[in-house]
Amino acid sequence: MTQVGVNGYGTIGKRVADAVAAQPDMDLVGVAKTRPNFEAETAARKGYPLYAAVPERVDRFAEAGLDLAGEVEDLVAAADVIVDCTPSGIGAENAALYDDHDTPAIFQGGEDADVADVSFNARANFDDAVGADSARVVSCNTTGLSRILAPLDETYGVEKARVTLVRRGGDPGQTGRGPIDDILPDPVTIPSHHGPDVNTIFPDLDIDTLGMKVPATLMHTHSVNVTLESDADAADVRDRFADETRLFQIPAGADIDGAGKLKEFAHDAGRPRGDLWENCIWAESITVEGRDLYLFQAIHQESDVVPENVDAVRALRGDADAAESMATTEDAMGVGIDY
Amino acid sequence: MTQVGVNGYGTIGKRVADAVAAQPDMDLVGVAKTRPNFEAETAARKGYPLYAAVPERVDRFAEAGLDLAGEVEDLVAAADVIVDCTPSGIGAENAALYDDHDTPAIFQGGEDADVADVSFNARANFDDAVGADSARVVSCNTTGLSRILAPLDETYGVEKARVTLVRRGGDPGQTGRGPIDDILPDPVTIPSHHGPDVNTIFPDLDIDTLGMKVPATLMHTHSVNVTLESDADAADVRDRFADETRLFQIPAGADIDGAGKLKEFAHDAGRPRGDLWENCIWAESITVEGRDLYLFQAIHQESDVVPENVDAVRALRGDADAAESMATTEDAMGVGIDY
């Protein structure tokens, strides 16, 4: 059993902790948290050992009536692999701590690519991380793009990808973020960081990305164009995607017109937190004009990277190959939608 | 002086009426309105003769204290050219009335292309409408695309255009429309109607368009990709666009990051209703990768077609060539932003 610690217990960390706890070959050593807020309270109720991320704040947990198992350094020492789920930029600051303890570490996509030995997407480049000391799970949007580009590149070859990402302004809990009633080019310069980030997974792929930010919180939505190297038709592409567990094709007639209905569907299905770990691709939108493939996909920014983090643990440990790890992860979490 | 009647005095009609009244070679005969609402009240205050669009409702104008110059048929009979600014679908119903009076008619882009002899964009195909009996001014989005495609096609040749249109959910006054907090593929099938609509102006142009709808009201925003037939660089394209009065390049450093600031700029500049008749292109976004040009542009759905309607009047009458008409229109209205 691999002993896994989770440093940071916010939007991603709490989901990774639950996913790790569900795996048959992993134990959750504990989770580190900066503040004794409602998330720390929930971790305690779940029985997850709680560690103080900031030693100076140990007293605040006691004041909140929360028992601590120790400080973050104890968690790092006890873990075979640490998953860093701290906010962007903090992971890089933590890297020295993991190094000091020779604890293999997994970082999130908000860090620069050079924080880790390798950038990681389970479907696209699992083997690159096998035996590495550290891996960076690419961001939710880059994960969503990598999952469709891998099978397309293998089956048809990709001449060029052009993607417009319409990004949610903030997560549902980020009440202070905007925009309100506006559509902002973000960034106004081209490309956005997503294209270069995809190149950390597919170094030779020709991709240009444009980002905009809008007043929505539930999911990102991508307008995707991929110029294929060989002929395809839409039915072919749908069949090819049907083999991929982490791609959910929303059927025509499901009356799912946006992220609101997708989340309602996930809640009705009993998904924890209403999470959608899969790319949600509108099947009707899959269109081929000449060699140009188009589609719309919605990406749940809070959860699509969670199975990738679990797979990254096994890759760093060399415990399984990509297919075995992905199947184990999916089985334990319940990833995959059979509509 | 060309006698111009405006049938329909809502979002577009009231702007067209003001623009016609400002022209040195046109008289506004009057405007037809279905209901005596706040817009009819404003028309009366401006001294525009008011006609009842629905004969059965004549009494309601009297009850509201508004004098009528007649019914819509009188307006059509008195006009040399009628500009139909009624809601989508109503224009087609009105076509027979204009025919009966042999009054040349201009329709809006919400009508099907076959409502008129020709679809019209002043910059791209003014001459096609000269001497025609009717013209259809294409929609705000198609107008915005035509204005950039015309100079690009002339200068570099267009191999293929791929455009994602992030559409405002409704105008500011359309309080009952959504979405709230969502991003909807709209339509979910590809292409959206915009690509085929651009082909009514550029029949041979290869263009695919994708539409999404978001919770914003102020302007549409386009993510544009045009694969050019010949080499270009971004500075070239900026120089080329600088020659086009109806293209406003938002300078880097202007601190205009979205539609909210654009509208504030327009209001500060004293523009009537805060209108932005020009495509608003972020200069920083103009990027060329190989032969792929990218840019972001915001399109003010309430006003960008207004100068086009004025030019369409002159085209139907054969009163001026494209350059003369556009210059006269722009001079009378104050179109063009010198930043």
From TrEMBL, chains A, B:
Pfam families: DapB_N, Gp_dh_C. Its main location: cytoplasm. GO terms for molecular function: 4-hydroxy-tetrahydrodipicolinate reductase; glyceraldehyde-3-phosphate dehydrogenase (NAD+) (phosphorylating) activity; glyceraldehyde-3-phosphate dehydrogenase (NADP+) (phosphorylating) activity; NAD binding; NADP binding. Keywords: Cytoplasm, Glycolysis, NAD, NADP, Oxidoreductase. NAD(+) binds at T11, I12, G110, R168, Q301. The active site is at C140 (nucleophile). Its EC number is 1.2.1.59. InterPro entries: DapB_N, GlycerAld/Erythrose_P_DH, GlycerAld_3-P_DH_AS, GlycerAld_3-P_DH_cat, GlycerAld_3-P_DH_NAD(P)-bd, Glyceraldehyde-3-P_DH_2_arc, NAD(P)-bd_dom_sf. It is found in: Cytoplasm. The keyword NAD applies. Pathway: Carbohydrate degradation; glycolysis; pyruvate from D-glyceraldehyde 3-phosphate: step 1/5. It comes from the Archaea. It catalyses: D-glyceraldehyde 3-phosphate + phosphate + NAD(+) = (2R)-3-phospho-glyceroyl phosphate + NADH + H(+); D-glyceraldehyde 3-phosphate + phosphate + NADP(+) = (2R)-3-phospho-glyceroyl phosphate + NADPH + H(+). PROSITE patterns: GAPDH. Residues 2-140 form the Glyceraldehyde 3-phosphate dehydrogenase NAD(P) binding domain. GO terms for biological process: glycolytic process; lysine biosynthetic process via diaminopimelate. D-glyceraldehyde 3-phosphate binds at S139, C140, N141, H194, G195. It is an enzyme of class 1 (oxidoreductase). Homotetramer. Belongs to the glyceraldehyde-3-phosphate dehydrogenase family. This is Glyceraldehyde-3-phosphate dehydrogenase. The gene is gap.
